[in-house]
Amino acid sequence: MMDLTDYVRKNEDGFQKLLLEQSTHPLNERCPVARASLAVTMILYDHFEVDKSDLEDIRGYLALNDGKNNDRLFKPLLLQWSRLHTAGLHAFFRMWKASGAQREDFDKVAELVRILIEQVVGQASRTKDVLEVEDDLQEYDAGRLRELQMELLDLSFEDQWGTHLFQVREELKHEALSFVKEQRIRCLLQGSWFTKPMSRNNNAHSRENSYQKRRLYQPWRYAKLSHNRRYLHYADFPEHLPYDPGLEALTEKIDLSTISSVVSNVSAPNDTEPVADPDAVDSPATNSTTSRHGAQVHKPTTKITIYSFVEDIPSSKPESVAGNSTSAVAATTNGEPKEQPILTLFPLNHSLASEWLDGLLMLLNQTPITAETNKLVTLVSEYGLKIRLLNVRLEQMYAGPVPGVGVVPSREGLDEDYYYEI
């Protein structure tokens, strides 16, 4: 009570104003000032470890005899107890008013004040002025304080149930990975459109050869996985068709068993920006027509290249990577077989690149690598954990209400002044 007496003596006008303001509220919504003062005192008492004996202090000094631990040894803010108590009490009143708390919410507000003092006073350096600490206590964002409280709750929950949650999380992560794998593979079964930039050759060509090359150039490619999930069908088209072609229209196919690896340079979604290129005729990233003479051209920044061992490649000429003058053959040493690109896909956006890259990797029983897919796996597993903790079962969703719920009792034998309370 000495802290409360000191507060009233030093803040007579503010204390009277506080009492007048509290008197205008209903009794259940008034903040118990004396109880709040005692709560702040106990919070400071626990924070500065006032109940710690001198013998324990000496042992702590010997164990922490290091210049790096001076902030833990010496706490000059302890000498400003009265000012810290006043600032903490004002913070208590501020949170009580901001949250619209009632009498039964006292412990919740006190816990918020405890977190606030631990965050502001506990992380203050030895050289920090008490005025700065007072300002931080009064101006600390309530939303951020709420986030800190939820983080602490998660940590305490992990400490208590960490072993059990680890097992459940591993199980749910495996289920989420299987779920996302099926989703990615179904994206491949649905099929997608890709761009096909014209490969440039630095060697000089005659005008006739260049014209012939541009005339035969087909800027769009459609790829689709077969229903048995064994072959990847694709074909090139001169324009983006208004419908998705069927498997019978896709003249080329790749046996997935011959694929040795899938390589990609999937970039951030903001990396695709229009660039002015007066000679650009090979970058239909978002349009079915080619821009020329200074038009804005969206150059694809994501590329997925499918490799196969040389002995597994059919007799037909393998596809060369667009943009290179020579065929990109990845030769390995130590007598191992060589790899050669057999198909290159240029996705229209980052999401499509993530779907196809991870879908192909999962078809080969490999781990997904893109951040978008990993984020989706985490999201599904976390929702599964919440449902598991809430003990929500599928049969409960379709069972309906308990028999008899909501039925109005009969009024037979009752007079007009008697009613059932529902």
UniProtKB/TrEMBL annotation:
GO terms for biological process: actin filament organization. Residues 1-121 form the ELMO domain. Pfam families: ELMO_CED12, PH_12. One of its GO terms (cellular component) is plasma membrane. It comes from the Eukaryota. PROSITE patterns: ELMO. Residues 284-293 have a biased composition (Polar residues). Residues 267-297 are annotated as: Disordered. Involved in cytoskeletal rearrangements required for phagocytosis of apoptotic cells and cell motility. Acts in association with DOCK1 and CRK. Was initially proposed to be required in complex with DOCK1 to activate Rac Rho small GTPases. May enhance the guanine nucleotide exchange factor (GEF) activity of DOCK1. This is ELMO/CED-12 family-domain-containing protein. It comes from Apiosordaria backusii.
